Amino acid sequence: MLFGIGCPSYGAYTDPGLIREVIRRAEDYGYYSIWFPDHIVIVGYLCLGYVSGFDAEPELAAKGWEHRVPLADVMHFDRYGAVDPLRAQGLAQKCDPATTRGVR
Asked: What does the pLDDT look like over 59-74, one tens digit per residue?
C-alpha cells in the first residue's frame, strides 16, 4: 500500500524553506507522493516589533487583493447577520467620519 501526504498552501506553509523540509521529511518517512495545490495563497502578514510607518492605502488594496469596505458595512449587532444600518453608520461616524463614505 502506498501513502501520500497533502500540504496546505497558505500562511507559514508558503515559505520555500519549510516546503523543502516537508518534502525531505516525507521522503525520509517513505511517503510515496506529496501533493501541493497549483497555487499558493498568502493570507496575511505578521509584524513583530515596531513599524517605520504606514502607507496611505492598505497594502492588500494597493496590490488589488481587496478593496476597502466602509466600516458601517461590516458591523453586526448581537449576532452575525443582524445588521442595523442607521446604528452602524452612527457608530462608524464616531470612530472616523471618513469611514462612512459610500455607506448604503
From this structure: 777 777 777 778 888 8
Threshold 0.90, pTM exceeds: no
Distances (CA, A) of 74 to 32, 61, 81, 95: 46, 17, 10, 14
Q: What are the phi and psi torsion angles at 34 (to 5°)?
A: -130, 130
Q: Is the pLDDT higher at 70 or at 100?
A: 70
Domain locations in the chain as residue ranges:
4-35, 59-100
DSSP string, 14-76: G-HHHHHHHHHHHHHTT-SEEE--SS-B-------S--S---SS-HHHHTTS-----GGGG--
